User: Fold these one by one.
Assistant:
Number 1:
Amino acid sequence: MTTELKQVSFPPEVLARIVPEVSLQRHLSIGLRPNLRNFLEFKPIEIASHANNITTTNDNVFGSSIVKSGNSTIVTTVTLGVVENTNSSTSTFNNNNNNNNNNNNNLTNDQFTSIYPVIDIQRGRSGAPSDEEMILSQNLYETILHSRLISKAALKINHCGLAIKETDINSDKDNIQIFYPDIHPQVFVNLPSSSSTLKKSYSFVIFCHVKVFSKISTIFDLCYSSIIDALHDLKLPRVYITDFSSTKISVKSRNSNTRGLVGVSKSSLNIDLNNELYYPLELSSEGGISCNFGAIKTVKNKQEDEDITMENEEVVELLADLEGEAEESTILSRISIIVDGNEKIKRLSLINGDINSEISLDILQRAIDVAKLRSRND
Amino acid sequence: MDRRRLLGPLNTVIPNIGISSEINGSKSTPQTGISSSSSSNKNDIENFFLKTGIIENANGSAYLEVGNNVIEVSVFGPRPIRGSFIDRASFSVECKFLPYISQPGDELFNTNNQFNNSNSNTNANGRTGLTTIEHKISSYVETALLPSIILEKYPKSTFDVFVTIVATETPTYNSNEKLMRLTNWIVNCASVALVDANVEVKDIVTSGIVKSNKSGDIIIDPRGQIEDEQNEQDEQDDQNEENVLGVASFMNLNNDQLVGIWVEGGDIDQDLVTKVINGCNDMSKKIRANINSFLIDSLQ
């Protein structure tokens, strides 16, 4: 005895959860994606770099950007660190400045530097960063390094100021004045003692914190545009040295476990909060637009007639800006391209993850064309 | 050394935020919003902006702007737990400032090394765990919200509330007041997020903040030093030490049940605490009325 199995049918949203690949194929066969976009349509991005007041309300933030795409919001903030240059690297700076300013072709990779991004995706877990966050951070670091966006010379602190404390005898108040070699050259003629501190050369280090709210799809593109936007917004401050700061540090005694306070006087680096002396970071290029694509084999019905099903044609379709569970889990052949304003390709990554829908040269060419077109439009 | 995050070369120094070399010497701090609201009635509650459901990958979320504070709360849960059976849900709150924000009172708690310790070279982006201030806020919010949730309905599950502070008030505020104001609004925002997450609650928790000065007058929803404007600066400092600040949270429909109280500063006696609680209750009712109409509107 055999019982006949009844055919079960699911509503589209349930089908999308159970068999995303079938749902995706059904969407594609009628020429539409599950997110209702066209095959080569990108999700709109809103960038608000100058509309936010993060930079003005936080003294330690020097550039910021907020990028929104759908519900995903990305807040990027740039803070600064300072690193002392070693002698060998300073000599290359000088050569670099003398020889060329515009011609980047002669420069090698070690004359460029990158940012140090920390990606923080709001995902309802605390603790160490996830693999995704770590990979994304490293990817962004390397992309910006190899796209030769930030030259080391642009981050060099050229005129390190000196703060001098004058005690007013009448009012017994300390009056601090900051002098810079390029603005107040007359002061520095008479300052031989401080020359040893001033001989050291320093460079800025750019830290980026990228907070991602409501992540629903791959976010490399969004993070990249957010960071690029924050870098365009970035204004570097002046830095001055104080020689007089005396701080108390706690020192552990050798014989016991108690700690005592010892006053030390050491020179320290400070950021001058004078807005008028801020200067924008010089970027070697515009940075460009990052796009991602996926390739998937679909079956196109040549004729609507039910009898001639054999005439179906299999085509590998190119989809732009993947989004949603169905596309992300099903499409494994991916291309990621960054094209700058001069239509130069800054980064290209290609993963042929799906044997059935391999990325052919033709598809790659189409993806590059679309990416170039997009970089022009934006 | 942190191998999981990119925190820059090892010999990087975080420079101190120094002074400005401008002629007048002091940096003018932007005073957006504060001066404009000062003209309004003393016992009015500051306008706030509230929005729910903005975080797609959370079960519920709320976003609140008040003054210059920007708070985002995401609720994750009920989520299944691993391990042995529990007959009621567990509940946790984690409150975090974005790393670049100077936290209210960090000069007292010495949490943010970046600003205090000249010999430290820690990048704030690499901070792990919560600071003392974040712990303080988290534990208050957790205590206040815990009685409202019907945990028995969710065996073998957890609720995790994540609060992100995107912006805080400008430094014109006294740090205690800044911290307590922030906590007050986080409680209000988090209860709306719980509703957005469809968590079964006994009542929506709302809270209020009051300040009492030396003469014992209660000011509801204090906003900076507005009421002391005419006084001299040093007189203000004296007053700040005498001032008593209080935050209290209530379940207004559940017989005004008090679910959290935090009083700080000055000489506190029973009389004053009663006054503070009553003042907070008044404010919490006003906020509750606002939230009620917001929730009714969002259903339509």
Number 2:
Amino acid sequence: MSDDLDYNLFWQQLQHQHGALYDVAQTNCYVICVPCTAVWAGLPLTVAVPKPIIESHILKPSPYFHGTFHSSARGKEHIEISIEDGHVVVQSPAGLDGKAALTAANVKFTAAQSVEPFKAKIMSEELFYNAQYKQFRVLVLQDTLSPVEVAAFRQQNGLGSSASSADKSKRMSRVHEFINSGGARDPLIVRKTPAAHAEFLEAFPENASAIASATNAIQAFNRGYVLVKGYLEHASRKVEMLCEQFYADLLDGNQLFSSSRDDSKVQDAIRLAAESFILDGIHTKLFSALCAIDEEADLQLHHRLAALGPLLRPDHLGIKPQFMCDLPDALKELSRLDTLRTPTEKLWCLKDTTQKIANGVAEHFAAKGRSASEAVVTADELIPLLARAIAFSAPMHWQANVEYIQHFQFTGASVPDLNFAMVSCLAAHSFLQSPPLLKMTAGLKATSPEMPRLSRGASVTAVRDVSELWSNSEPAGSGSPASGRRADLAGSSARGPGRSLSSLSRANSTHPAVALPEDALSDLLGSSSISSSSSSSSNYSSSSNSGSSSYRTYASPNAGVAALQRRSTLPTIRPPDVISTPPIARPSPSLSMRRPATNVLQSSPGDGGPDLGDFLSDTSVSSSYSSLGR
Amino acid sequence: MGDSLTFKIVLLGEGCVGKTSLVLRYCENRFVDKHISTLQASFLTKRLNIGGKRVNLNIWDTAGQERFHALGPIYYRDSNGAILVYDITDEDSFQKVKNWVKELKKMLGNDIALVIAGNKSDLEKHRTVSAEAAEQYAASVGARHFYTSAKLSKGIEELFLDLSKRMITEADKRGGTSTVGRKTAIVVDDDVAPKAQSGGCC
């Protein structure tokens, strides 16, 4: 659907001001033609549309000829109308207004035009059922069937009798221009950068006070707020309050904004802009802290994925041969994730990644000369292709990004397709950790001819190094049967347990094909036997086993990491840990698996940050994956 | 704006039973020039208007391969409705539907409206799942059963209309909200300033 009836003046007027006409139309299953929203651009939804215009667009079937219709408007019943080839065709060159009306409006026809019927393109059709569940048609048209009447109506309304209304209309049109320039139906998914949102808000001088207050709040947050591990919900509420306060201030200070309280599209756009402004302002502080919280988990995950990527073959992931193709655009998009500043932008990045996978597949099919209808990316294709993209891109801050999106995204979280993209990425990520996949990928060679190596990601050297780490991080005397085999792997037995992750930085070197024992690689990628206490496990696992179906329990994305932490000789992190905000960067060669350096950061007085009482009383921390679709 | 409801529908069934074709057929817009190949078929939307109510259907396709079965809960969480699709020429696919029903009942209880679709009804002469058994089973689990053919575009609109009507009824029982199963943490915080009027959808 390319036009939203909820924001269409004609439709709203038909529903609310001309209800009797609508009732007759639906009871009799007439065809209702709705000129698209663009036809009414600049006119508020409350302007009364004249009844003749409404009637002109309600088409009754001809009692004489099948497939022919007549307008309900008085005086226009004689004009034949048909629906042909994606158009509503009026057998009159001037539409339903008649040639006389056009002449009166100084519209002149050429000889060719005067014999051509008037056509309005059908943009879309919605399914409608009346109270008796009988279908009737509602067609959204690119144009009106009464061009002269609508032009006169536009001139009479909203577009300028007095200077003040002209100014208001112009300023309001700036709001609508901002909303609609994304080309999206839903204002929540308008693609805007934080800079564009800020520019929009700053375009209204009366927003200055609200912006100044928001800027102060951002500075106070950055100066003194303390993000405590395990208390993300508190931070989430705090940031949401900042956004809500900014939004409220904007409405208080801007009459134009407050006068459109009933227009949810405008209000959502303002709310989104406010959220974007705040999140952009606190991004460095907040995201750095999240990265610090998840540093160990993310680092392990990155190296595990970097090692796994080159080893994967299409059959491991269940990618059908015809869908196997390079997806450079999707990989490039996914690699942007860390660089984006607001959760909404990141959510869009995930959505774009899934879309670019679909586009890449379509291009691949086209290049092979195959029918485009075969290139439909269903969930059976999307999950493995997405899993492959995630493995190859080996994101540095996956967990931090997931938490950032889930806890600090307030306006767009309920947008269904963004939510679906997020869930698909989590599903693909979970699939990469699934025991069946780990089993399949065990013992394979890295130089698969079927799976093109991408420049990014680690080599087999890294696999060996990580496996060494796993074997060496086994606490002395734990004595699992696998530990001996792991210790033997690639001659690593001579290395001591205190070895840091610094060896992983050699991941960029290449190595000839190396076969790994099954259990070694499984352990490397995350043991399936681990019962993770990670917050992420709850929504990923399905342990039920009903009937003949073999439901399996997947290790959570952090299961391997949790196990590593348990096995590690590093000190245990004791809550509440207060996280410093180191700069976000890829690991340097000297990166070690140190825990975050600080346990407590001081909160500046009066900065609005939480106090310890808040932390201790806050027990509402939810699963990191349960906040989807909040 | 207006009386609008949004429902999440999850599409479940074994691979190759035609569930994607079924939903593509339902959601296709013949007036849009953009070809479906450039769109993902795993998430589709459809707008309906039933008895004056605006209904937005968000249809989540799921992977049918057994290897992805364990990912099901991620997808069907918070669903208002489920369409369980089997192939009338494939007895195994019907058994898979039964397994999905058990799982959904176990995980979501009766919060979810179920519809069972016997797809590929154009292949009647190759039928292996008896009509009587399928309809009896559907009735026994409180689901409606429909025969559909994505190929011939038969039975699909009826299926979605019935499911939508049942989801509307459920939403009305809940006081007009389409939200199910959301876990909401109630936080008492004296310092929290009064929030501005919330907007947005759902």
Number 3:
Amino acid sequence: MNQAFGIVNFAGNHIQVDGLQDYRPVGAFSFLGRYRVIDFPISNMSNSGIDTIQVYIRRKPRSLTEHLGTGRHYNINSKRGRLHILYTESNMVSDLYNTDIAAYIENLDVIERVPYPYVVIVPSYMVYTADYSNLLQTHIDSGADITLMYHSVDNAKEKYLSCYTLDINRQKGVDSIQPNRGNAKNKNIFMDTYVMKKDLFLDLIHKAHKMSAMYSLVDIVDEACQELDVRAVPHRGYFASITDFRSYYDANMSLIDLKNAQNLFVNDWPIYTRTNDSCPTQYFDGSHVTSSVVSNGCLVEGTIENSVIGRGCVIKEGAVVKNCVISSDVVIGKGVHAENLVVDKHARLVRGKRVIAPPEKPGYIKRGDAL
Amino acid sequence: MKQNNMLAMILAGGRGTRLHELTKKMAKPAVSYGGKYRIIDFPLSNCANSGIDVVGVLTQYESIQLNSYVAAGRRWGLDAKNSGVYVLPPREKADANLDVYRGTADAISQNIDFIDSFSPEYLLILSGDHIYKMNYAKMLAYHKEHNADATIAVIEVPMREASRFGIMNTDETSRIVEFEEKPEKPKSNLASMGIYIFEWKLLRKMLMTDMKDPDSSHDFGKDIIPALIDDGKNVFAYKYKGYWKDVGTIDSLWEANMDLLDKNNELDLNDPTWKIYTEDVTTLPHYVGPKADINRAFITQGCVIDGEVKNSVLFTESKVAEGARVIDSVLMPGAVVEEGAVVQRALVADGIRIGKNAVVGSADSEHIELVAKRVKGEE
């Protein structure tokens, strides 16, 4: 697909994932043990034949730049292709001004120099698989100015509360983009995924910049719905939006079921990630593991039930890990019972014998914490 | 090459006939081991971790897979400037007949021009089919310290097994005074590991002579090493302590995999300071289903387990369905054990499917059963 380049956008101000986001942007969150959230959008692009990819970072770049590296692990052509990591300027009066539009303005010349006529803009904080070459073709064939992707859900009252929704008319045209106010079950959740001509994209950036210093791309596209031909394409398959703590936990848990996972990890659509060269996981006498997803490099002596385990974790003798999402290099000590938790990287649960959160409100153990 | 002026050559032409079907279409160094590795990952990772930048891999038998596998030097970090993995199958040259490698020494002789192009001071010769972790930089330091002309890595083997190996007899300074290939009455238990460091200039001279010798079998163990010792050269034994395995048979390949199940196994693949690198495959983490029962196992990414796995090693993307039992066994990459099937004391080859309720291997067999063909189950 040598007609489009890709932009992986960051999570805006309205998205707040408590705990985890203090240490890194959502794109760099550990996901399903061996992945990071951003592996999904970038793999989608790479598999769709997009080999010029710009990743925008708003804050805390360390873990994300470390993970992305040169981008070679995403199977992007190392000569013709390019993974570009771009930053906003953070010396702003307030974080509120640190919008995606500000980031694009900051890197305008980089965008202008890309030789492709179309741009595909996707979020770094949503997990789904989609073929952007099909999306682009649909967009070109329809003659629309902008094409957006959405996912229809029937639980928008209690979920997707930090997402936008699309008002779609009968002609598949988009009338407006509204925040999800949680007032109806059935909604078309906007997947923050856009296709348009690069020139139009540049126009919109300038327009938004003039209009308001706090505008983001979604605001200006919402306005554009009045005068431009903005259409929507539905997405089918697995979709998760990592836009608050609960959705992060739920997305991980939902993929423990292999059937769900097969809706996300489809044939001939590899999801790439950075290898860690960890050895396989070792299970010892006394280990008891059911309904779980386990990454490489773990040493397991205890019990794991209905959990996601990251790379290089140690689950000691007599330990019980139940309904947990465990990041990499975590130690669950002898006899410790951990339940309904998200445990961040390098944490050690060794002394507290019972660390149990209520199932309706999973707990969070901070990065590197010793308990 | 800058790092220590030593170039490594890995002998990877061996066929490994005693591995039967496993090496029918693939050279022995390319055989899978330890869940996610291939045997040749070990010498290659050792080189990378020891600061060796240039590695030649001498291939011959069924080399297509092996050639493409090792050519991607990036996997082991051997891709910096002036660094690389070079695949060296026999090739036609202007002034000589095209010939296969007639022996281990001949394989090096036929690539003298390649080695010369890097003008190394030292040449490290390795075997592509051994499983071990070793810091060759330490061995080189030992070599220099002893002012040796050649240094041979040796490992102590049980005396009763010594007659299966090439045995080094040394004096009190570790200088090798005699070399005996598979001696009936071994005088020592120091077995050659097939790892040699040579002064390249000296070896080069010896190889030139060896090439012209019609009586030579062009082999390091049989010809070059004995000649060095007979010439009174300084040949030293470098004692290695640690895990080392030559997996020549199905039984020993199985056993080497089983070794990984021990909690404090000597190989310790989990050591962050000496990682073994391999191909990066894009698969999910392993999935453990609600009916799974896992005890003493070594399991890698891409596996899906919903049955019983005991005392077994599961390679990339192998599957154990509900109600199936895998005991004391090795499932190579992509092997599938369907519902209710039982696999016991067996090694199931790459991509082989064991059908529903089928039974392979048995608890009291003398040897490990190699399953290299699809086993039909109940329809």
Number 4:
Amino acid sequence: MRAILNRLYEVSGLIAAAFLVAICAVVVAQVALNAIDRVAGLLTGSAIGLVIPSYSTFAGLFLAAASFFALPYAFRHGAHIRVSLVLQHIPAGARRGCDILGAAIVTLFSAYFTWYMGVLALESHAFGDVTSGMVPVALWIPQGAMTLGLGVLTIACLDDLVVLLLGGEAAFNAEGQQLLAGRDEGASGSAAGAMGRSTDGGGPMDGDGR
Amino acid sequence: ESWDMPTPYPDATFHTQNIMQFAEDVKEATDGALEITVHSAGSLFKHPEIKNAVRSRQVPIGEFFLSLLTNENAAFGIDSQPFLATTYEQAEALWRAQAPVVTELLAEQDLMPLYAVAWPPQGLYTKEPVETVEDLKGIKFRSYNAALEKFAQLAGMAPTQVEVPDIPQAFATGRVEAMITSPSTGANSKAWDFVEHYYDIKAWVPKNIVVVNRKAFRALDESVQTAVLNAAKAAESRGWQMSQEETQAKTDMLSENGMEVHQPSEALMQGLKQIGEEMIADWKAEAGPAGERILEAYQAD
Amino acid sequence: MTEILLSAGVVALLFALLAMGVWVAFALFLVGALSLLVFSNAPLGTVLATSTWGASNSWALAALPLFIWMGEILFRSKLSDNLFSGLAPWLTRLPGRLLHVNVFACAVFAAVSGSSAATAATVGKISIPELTKRGYSERMMIGTLAGSATLGLLIPPSIILIVYGVATEQSIARLFVAGVLPGVLLVLLFSGFIVAWALVNRARVPSQEDRTSLAERLRAGRELLPVMLLILGVIGSVYLGIASPTDAAAVGVVIALILAWRSGDLSWTSFRDGLMGAVRTSCMITFILAGAAFLTTAMGFAGIPRMLAAWIGDMGLSANELLVALTIFFVVMGCFLDGISIIVLTTSIIMPIVEQAGIDPIWFGIYLVFVVEMSQITPPVGFNLFVLQSLTGRNILQVAWAALPFFLLMGGAIVILTAVPDLALYLPSLMGR
Ligand code: NA
Ligand code: NA
């Protein structure tokens, strides 16, 4: 079960990464076409007009998909920031209580969010909503992607809530980035040293630790 | 009762000012029984979301650019077809033909049009002077929908995609060399900072539309409903009047600020109209029954 | 009065949620949800979905993850190390030495990025490990970054000036030009502060590296070449007219990848790590932005910012009094709302008051950028603070404390800008024909 769930979050993160690469690819392709056009303009005196239709719309839609597929993955890696000031200064028991309450609140909210994002996607599908601009894209597709991302986020929140209730340690307490870590270990010779300790134990993809 | 009304354009735009007056009229006529709070400049919902927000009753009323819905049904976008209706008279006739069809189509989404107001006729902004269609060949032309892309290609121009906030910089760096937009948009974005020539080609006369959710409307008292409809009627005629005054004022503003405002040459207009005819023939073939009905009604008018 | 009590309740809820350790983005969503339930009868779930959808599929925002990715690539290559070792010999005489790199790197990066979050994330990712390694004061390092990253909003291109220009129908080109001199003013103020601080706290600046000859400096300067190529490539693509400012972010990623590959630092592992790091950081920021957008919509329905702005308008103040009142208003609102949201929610009310008081709208746009910049570094809701918290793992209050001097410097800059309005107005006046 644990392995399946971890795999789910990881795949979600990989899909997000693919969309981020897609944003870069579509924009770079358009810039390359602009460059060709520029050269052609200089040589022949008139531009060709090489366009990737609605490339900016596509980049925006890819961004929505990337952001939401990344949610559970980032959550599990402790990338979403919180104010830990109070938590640091209260007894461990109370801290645990806050973690449980917090996890319960975000689990409920994520579930609610997922439901209504799904409703929006279904409504867009029912009415045949499409983007404006050169290429009509059915809105339910990106909205459906956002719903999926939120759904997996709900699972990730619930996962941590259950773990906490069973007395375990939540994955969201992973430390995220620690660029100052080199300070605690004494000045080290390379940038890699400054990156310090591994961020969490979340499988083969845990970013900053190598 | 109090209604929130999202609108896409800023306060200074005459459409928004007309809506403020409309809200004022409704309040007065209903003795405050219905108060409309206008949220301008996309501050409540962004432009693409406004129609759907009214549909799902997040807000009871809203305004948007009608031909934004072209991709849903070509009938919504007939007012943005180049050189079909170019004067205010023709635009009014086109709206008379279009209104019943738009009303039917929007009813499927639980929406009811209250009124529509035209933007000033669209003019051509260029870096270099243009005497004939021949002069347009090979220059980079801002295209933001399929119709404009086709228009660019038929005129031998190179279509290019530039987002609205990037327009000044795109002209400055040569990423774009010509665009079609209204004198209002040109004056409001201080087009004289980045482009030299304006040709009053009256390419098309697009409209903003104000729609209300049918259920929200029916929930009003009958007397209030009547007051809203009366205020809408007044807003429509006032808006078209404002639009004509705006055309004059903003075109003057372009020339006062050093742009060369030209009446287009016969040859240029002839070439452009030919392209328009070609496009409308294609459009008719693809527009579907709703679009065809509008075109027939308009041509019979 | 009930409204004021209820607004206080909303603020209290935000504090409670944050103190409990609820994630910042979720806290914004939850406070927005509660405001919507209490102050309006709009359907919560559908508004939540629609507002989030509208805020998330955004072309303008697409540059953010790309710039962050570029920073991740540089961070994993020798380029970031080269940048600092190349500059070090040149800065030996300037008190505060490499701390100035934060200011100048942010200023240069601001010329391609329109947002301060992207600026903080990209420059911070590179400079924090390098400065840490060299033993610089942590507080100054974080403070200079938090403060200088706000230059992303002032030096063109700028998301906030675009939002303001569109909402008030001012020329965006003029606003961009107007931002240049005030941007230089801020750079000078920040660098001046570093110099002053370094002179007072000699002991806390790492010991002097050996004096170097000009030849050695030039040799070291060669290490700067790749980074300069990157900057030239990104800015050049815009001014050659082949890329929009948003496109330039993707150009930056590609050039960074090529440079990392040329210097032998690009392996499959480093590529994957950089990409996944960018995914995590940009997800964190975009989700907070979505929460802020929803809170903005909820506040629009609730009408609280409108009400407060109208209240200021009714006080009948002179131009200078009005500016003082507005600055207090923006700083207080800026603690809880993101700066762009405040502008979006209040321009309708504020602009007529401002114009009536005879304040130039272009000047006011630059003034607004300054107050919005300040809101980026005030807790509990400040985007630069969030980014730096995420980068360093330090607490938000520690980060905010480090940023405090720069907050005050910006306050001083507003006073200067008010005393010398030509700082903002001279350059645009040259554009008129
Ligand atoms: Na910038
Ligand atoms: Na703040």
